[in-house]
Structures are given as structure tokens and as C-alpha cells.
Design brief:
The protein is mainly alpha-helical. It has helices at about 20-45, 50-55, 55-65, 80-105, 115-130, 130-145, 145-170, 175-185, 190-220, 230-240, 245-270.
């Protein structure tokens, strides 16, 4: 018998298809909409394409001015790098301490009422929605340029990130342990200390360690707006076109960020 096999009754065989015709039409419409959105975004940015085409030549010229690095300049950036680490460390600690009460109010299983829940969520969203550079600009006006503005900016930006993750950890605690502490007649403070904190302490340690790693990188950048640290030195070198010094600063930032990431991973592995 030649040709395709036919089912009983002479009907053609049914072919299995993953998506129906309607589903394929919707997929095509979604792909088409995505392509149109990308094309619209590219055209709306008003890119000056001669500069884009000239970019490889400019990159080569800039790389030629950045090499070789001015290695003796490394001695001049030791203090700014230490200041950057201090800004990140103190800012992380302050932000972590302030985030704990916010997390307790943001957790649905502990917050007293909806008003406190929404207040905590407003704090979390407000902290996370504003970039560290913007916070640094604001606090540089309040405290003046320097490490104090950077430390406060790092602390405020850390509250929302830390509180959100800690609150999620609080919502997943074992309620039986909390109820057992309450059954002994313990007050809210003892319930928190003996029933809740022991369960969420690994989460707090892990989140704060991870946030410290992030803040090391952010502290190296916020100095560009006058918030202390190595960023001020980097901004000065770039404004004076000292590109070999810029290379040394970038290498130092890369080294300290790599070291902080290794330390953060090691601490999380040993303490959690």
C-alpha cells in the first residue's frame, strides 16, 4: 500500500501539535509586539550612530592612554580604599539593625495590624526604589561631602533590601516554637528573643553578609557624587585625564570587590 496510512473509515490520520492555531497566533503577536517595542526603544533613544561606529577607535585610543598603569600611585589610594570598606561595613551594620524592626512589622504573621504592615512596606519600597547614588546626593547636601554622607546613604538603601528578605524569613518560621514560648507566660520581648530570633538568625546573617558584599561595590561608586571613599579619587583622576591613575584605581576596586565576594561566600558557608 502506497501513500499515507489512513484511519478506519478513510479519514486522514490526526497529527499531534503542541500548540493550537490560536495559541500560535498569540505567540506570533507577542513576538511581533516584542520586536516592535525594541525597535521603538532604539529609535526613541535618538542615538547618534556616527559616535557608535567610531566607538572601537575611541576605545583603542583610551586603552592606549590607560596602559601601562601608574603603579606607584597605588600608595596614594590605600587610605581611600580603607575608607570605602569602612563606609560599606558601618553602613551595612546600621542598615541591618534598623531593618530588623521594619522586618518584624512587614511580616504578616507578626505585624499588629494592617496599618503597621503598610507602614513597613512603604519604608521597604521607599528605601529600595531610590538608588544609592541618589541617596548619596541627598545626604551629601545634609551632612556635607564626605564619608558620613556615604555611610548614611548605604545604611538607608540597605534597610529595604534587608528588611524585605528578613520579613520573608520571619513568615516561614515554625509557629509551634513561638507558641511554646508564649505558653510559659513569656512577654513579647522574650518571645522575640527566644522564639523568633533563633529561627531567623541564619537568615539575618546571610542577608547582611550578602548586602555587605553589595555595599562594597556601591561604596566605590557613591564617591563620584562626593560621598567619600575611592570614588572621589576616581572622579578627580578622570577629571584631570590621569588615565594611568584611573587604571590603578579600577584594578584596586576590582581586587577589593573580588575579595569581599570571597569573604562573603565564606562567611555565609560557615555561619549559616
Amino acid at each position: 500500500m502506497t501513500g499515507t496510512r489512513q484511519e478506519a473509515g478513510g479519514r486522514p490520520p490526526r497529527v499531534w501539535e503542541r500548540y493550537s492555531r490560536r495559541q500560535r497566533m498569540w505567540q506570533f503577536a507577542a513576538y511581533l509586539g516584542g520586536v516592535m517595542a525594541i525597535v521603538w526603544a532604539a529609535t526613541a533613544m535618538d542615538i547618534y550612530w556616527p559616535f557608535v561606529l567610531d566607538a572601537p577607535e575611541q576605545i583603542g585610543d583610551l586603552a592606549g592612554r590607560m596602559v601601562p598603569p601608574d603603579w606607584p600611585f597605588f600608595l596614594d589610594i590605600v587610605d581611600p580604599m580603607i575608607e570605602t570598606i569602612n563606609i560599606a561595613t558601618i553602613g551595612t551594620l546600621v542598615g541591618g539593625l534598623l531593618s530588623i524592626p521594619v522586618a518584624l512589622l512587614a511580616a504578616q504573621n507578626l505585624t499588629p495590624n494592617k496599618a503597621t504592615l503598610w507602614l513597613a512596606r512603604v519604608i521597604v519600597v521607599g528605601s529600595r526604589s531610590v538608588n544609592e547614588l541618589v541617596w548619596a546626593l541627598i545626604f551629601a547636601v545634609v551632612f556635607g561631602p564626605g564619608p558620613a554622607a556615604g555611610m548614611v546613604a548605604i545604611a538607608v538603601s540597605s534597610i529595604g533590601f534587608t528588611a524585605k528578605l528578613v520579613a520573608e524569613g520571619i513568615e516561614e518560621i515554625e509557629p509551634g516554637q513561638v507558641e511554646a514560648i508564649r505558653a510559659t507566660g513569656a512577654g513579647p520581648a522574650k518571645v522575640l528573643i527566644y522564639g523568633i530570633l533563633p529561627q531567623i538568625m541564619p537568615v539575618i546573617v546571610g542577608v547582611m553578609t550578602f548586602r555587605w558584599d553589595i555595599n562594597i561595590r556601591q561604596s566605590a561608586i557613591i564617591g563620584l557624587v562626593g560621598a567619600g571613599g575611592i570614588g572621589i579619587t576616581l572622579n578627580t583622576a578622570m577629571n584631570s585625564f590621569a588615565w594611568r591613575e584611573v587604571t590603578v584605581i579600577l584594578i584596586a576596586i576590582f581586587a577589593i570587590v573580588a575579595a569581599s565576594e570571597w569573604i562573603s561566600a565564606t562567611l555565609r558557608k560557615r555561619m549559616i
